[in-house]
Structure formats: C-alpha cells, structure tokens
Design brief:
By secondary structure, the protein is of the alpha+beta class. It folds into two domains: 37 residues; 83 residues, Alpha-Beta Plaits (2-Layer Sandwich). Helix content is 37%, strand content 21%. It has a four-stranded antiparallel β-sheet. Strands 5-6 form a two-stranded antiparallel sheet. Helix 2 packs across helix 3.
C-alpha cells in the first residue's frame, strides 16, 4: 500500500504538508496523490473514531452472522446488496467459516437489534440461519485503545 494511504488510514487528520515532510515529498505531490485517490474511490470516506461511552451513549453494537443458501451465480452479491441498503447496517463482509456474511450494526437497545434481525435479515430469501453477538465492551478498535490502564499509559510514554 502507498505510504500516503498508510499514513491517512492511521490518522485522517494529517495534512498534506505533514505527510510530505514525513515522506520527503513535496506538498503539491501529496495533494495531487490524495486528490487522485479520492477521485478513483481508493479513499472512500474520512471518519472519526469516537468513544461513545464517554459521550453517555448507551447504544449497542451487534455482530450478526448470516448463513446463506445462494440461488444462482450472484446469490451472495444479490443478498449483500439487499442488506447493505439498510441504514442500520454499518458494515457487511463475506466471510469464510460456518457463516457466510457478517453484519455489524448499532442499535439503541439489544431488543431493537434483535427486532431488526428477525424483521429484516431473517426474512430475506436465501438466509437460512442467523447468530447475533453483542459487543459488551470495546478495548481496541482500528488500532486505537479505548481505555488505557495507568501502566499502559506509562509504557506508551517511553516508546
């Protein structure tokens, strides 16, 4: 992967000037590269990773596994297109293993997530089984530690 992309993926707030200085490139070259990545949809979106617990948000994150019995050559893709159109669906992946698709979603309550599964996902033709898991606590996501213990903070300072 391009070094510019690696840096932006790690910290989307980096400026072209900061990236250029770190990589020994010109700011104009970095700006042009980023513009190209945005135009060809290599860079899809810039987001912030937020610790919602600190904001008093009591919503739940559900990981929902779906077993699929696809009909025809585009069965997985057809079902995936139907699922990712729901606003509640945050991520959707085709997986190896016991289940075929993995859906991540946020909901206000576990009951809301369960209702979404039985009202929308389980009723899709080709979905033969579901398994829902709820995230109880986030420790680390996308290489970012949520709640650091004092000894971790101390270790990180001396790196």
């Amino acid at each position: 992967m391009d070094e510019i992309l690696k840096m932006l993926e790690k910290d989307g707030k980096l400026t072209a000037k900061q990236i250029a200085a770190a990589l020994g490139k010109t700011e104009d070259d970095v700006k042009a590269a980023i513009c190209g990545y945005e135009q060809d949809c290599t860079i899809l979106k810039y987001t912030a990773l937020i610790d919602h617990e600190k904001n008093g948000d009591d919503s739940v994150t559900a990981l929902i596994e779906l077993k699929i019995s696809p009909q025809g050559g585009d069965g997985y893709d057809r079902i995936a297109r139907r699922i990712y159109q729901y606003d509640e669906v945050e991520s959707l992946y085709l997986m190896t293993g016991t289940y075929d698709l993995l859906v991540t979603m946020n909901a206000k309550t576990m009951k809301d997530a369960a209702q979404f599964v039985y009202a929308h996902l389980a009723t899709i033709e080709g979905v033969s089984a579901t398994a829902t898991h709820f995230i109880m606590k986030k420790y680390k996501e996308r290489n970012c530690v949520f709640a650091q213990e004092p000894e971790q903070e101390e270790r990180l300072r001396f790196r």
